[in-house]
């Protein structure tokens, strides 16, 4: 396990009330603090999904109970035997590499995220910042469209802002031949897997297995291709002892229901422990990392934990990753799940439309890096 000391969002000389509150917010979100379920040594559980694809309800329930235990403690788990072919994973990581290394600056500029009100398109490293850090990451973001959904969707997709129509920005076929088809192949598979996992989440929350099905017919599903440049000059150079860390992606929690993360072998993802140290994720071969995100935490009245994480590539190889942020249909209004409230307990959160919540969170990352400061409104609890 690689650890170092915790870095909170950078404070300016004149600490504003907002910034002080943003630090307090991050501190308050330290992974599963004061949680009696927290294991004494931190390990990310590995959940084998094989039984979840069988006709046996009790086998599916056994997987669901492992999911519950991970979601109420670490907020992170690895999944294996997930039915996504390893060739598909290798192929999307190569598409990511092609995107960042083949397109010219002018071609990337055509896809610039500033042209999108929904955070879609190409994101140069400095354009967004979560916690005020100068981040090394570069990204390409795209969302759900019916053409990417193997079920064909239900024709009712709404964007984050409630608008209709496909707002993705794609590179031209003549500039990156086969890119769209490659993305479609991966997206279709990961979307099916996310819907399968949502059924297991339903069981894990003592709900009927199909409880969320009607809410994921035209779901939110933002995927990102991410590139973290190498920062060490040779395998033996030790960046861990450097004063300034090469923050790839600043400390944050994800916004949607849960995230399915694929990455190239270069390590980088670090998870904030209650002790304030960072735990470096080491996913087993052919696995995905799954983590609970803030909307799910809110929806479960805090029963499921959304855990702070960041990315630091200390190596001499580039890191590529493909997070997939899964949400219910953006036009769905959700309120606390009844099974997450004890008798007589009142929900801490007001009902909210999924897209409204997520868009508000996304917008905060582009306002001079005041991500956490701007997030208080959407975490507002019931008065
Ligand atoms: O690239 C990674 O490994 C993680 C990315 C991530 O946490 C995010 O995009 O929210
Ligand atoms: Fe994340």
TrEMBL record:
Pfam families: 2OG-FeII_Oxy, DIOX_N
Span list, region Disordered: 1-21
Biased composition (Polar residues): 1-15
One annotated GO biological process: small molecule biosynthetic process
Domain Fe2OG dioxygenase: 215-328
Record keywords, A-Z: Iron, Metal-binding, Oxidoreductase
InterPro entries listed in its UniProt record: DIOX_N, IPNS-like_FE2OG_OXY, IPNS-like_sf, Iron_ascorbate_oxido_reductase, Oxoglu/Fe-dep_dioxygenase_dom
Recorded GO MF terms: metal ion binding; oxidoreductase activity
Family designation: Belongs to the iron/ascorbate-dependent oxidoreductase family.
The protein's name: Clavaminate synthase-like protein
Record organism: Melanomma pulvis-pyrius CBS 109.77
């Amino acid at each position: 396990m690689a650890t170092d000391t915790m870095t909170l969002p950078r404070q300016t000389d004149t600490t504003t009330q907002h910034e002080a509150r943003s630090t307090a917010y991050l501190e308050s979100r330290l992974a599963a603090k004061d949680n009696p379920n927290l294991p004494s040594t931190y390990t990310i559980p590995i959940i084998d999904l094989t039984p979840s694809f069988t006709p046996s309800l009790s086998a599916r329930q056994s997987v669901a109970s492992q999911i519950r235990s991970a979601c109420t403690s670490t907020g992170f788990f690895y999944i294996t035997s997930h039915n996504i072919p390893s060739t598909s994973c290798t192929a999307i990581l190569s598409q990511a590499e092609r995107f960042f290394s083949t397109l010219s600056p002018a071609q990337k500029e055509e896809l610039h995220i500033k042209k999108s009100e929904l955070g879609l398109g190409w994101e140069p490293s400095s354009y967004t910042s979560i916690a005020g850090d100068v981040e090394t990451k570069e990204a390409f973001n795209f969302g759900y469209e019916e053409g990417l959904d193997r079920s064909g969707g239900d024709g009712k997709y709404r964007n984050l802002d409630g608008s209709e129509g496909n707002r993705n920005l794609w590179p031209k076929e003549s500039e990156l031949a086969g890119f769209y088809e490659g993305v479609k192949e991966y997206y279709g598979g990961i979307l099916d897997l996310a819907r399968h996992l949502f059924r297991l989440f339903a069981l894990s929350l003592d709900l009927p297995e199909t409880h969320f099905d009607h809410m994921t017919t035209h779901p939110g599903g933002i995927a990102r291709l991410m590139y973290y440049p190498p920062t060490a000059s040779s395998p033996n150079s030790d960046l861990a002892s450097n004063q300034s860390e090469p923050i790839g992606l600043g400390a944050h929690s994800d916004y949607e229901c849960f995230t399915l993360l694929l990455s190239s072998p270069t390590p980088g993802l670090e998870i904030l422990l209650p002790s304030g140290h960072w735990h470096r994720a080491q996913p087993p071969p052919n696995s995905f990392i799954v983590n609970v995100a803030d909307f799910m935490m809110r929806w479960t009245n805090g029963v499921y934990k959304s855990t702070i994480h960041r990315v630091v590539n200390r190596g001499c190889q580039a890191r590529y990753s493909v997070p997939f942020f899964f949400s219910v249909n953006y036009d769905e209004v959700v309120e606390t799940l009844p099974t997450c409230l004890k008798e007589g307990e009142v929900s801490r959160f007001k009902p909210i439309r999924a897209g409204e919540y997520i868009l508000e969170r996304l917008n905060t990352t582009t306002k001079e890096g005041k991500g956490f400061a701007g997030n208080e409104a959407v975490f507002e609890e019931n008065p």
